[in-house]
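[READ THE FOLD]
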Amino acid sequence: MGHSGDVFENDYQTAVVRANLAAIAFGPKAVRRDETLFNDLRNMTLTRDEGAPIKVSEAQIAKFRERKDIAKLRDEIQHTTNKLEKSRLRGQIGSVLETCKRLQLEQYRQAYFKEADRLRLQGLEPTPTPGMGGPGIAAPVAACLWRCRP
């Protein structure tokens, strides 16, 4: 679920924050006065993703494969001789697994960001949780910006 820099800039970092509209309207004096604020706003989304889950663990995927509905579909595959039916059933298994992974990842991310918001309100930074998928694509940049901030 990692994204390229273009996807990050287009979909996660708002266009409003990319440009300091006050600076355009009021000139260089406004730029100097608000520079720190707008740098922080631009970088806020970069630090936001550091440590966020990006995938479901192999252990969790193994649990999904043990579900009763998937076991039933595998049983149906073994008992049919029709190749098209086997292919359809395999596709159904894949679809169920992908849906489970997507929903689980969404749940992990919601929990992570809820906790991250709570910690940041206290002035703390969240740490990556083992087994939750690791840092997002922006993590190295976010870590550098966090260490180098004024």
In short: The two ends are 31 Å apart (CA to CA). Residues 1-50+135-150 form one domain. The chain has eight helices and no strands. Residues 17 and 144 are 20 Å apart (CA to CA).
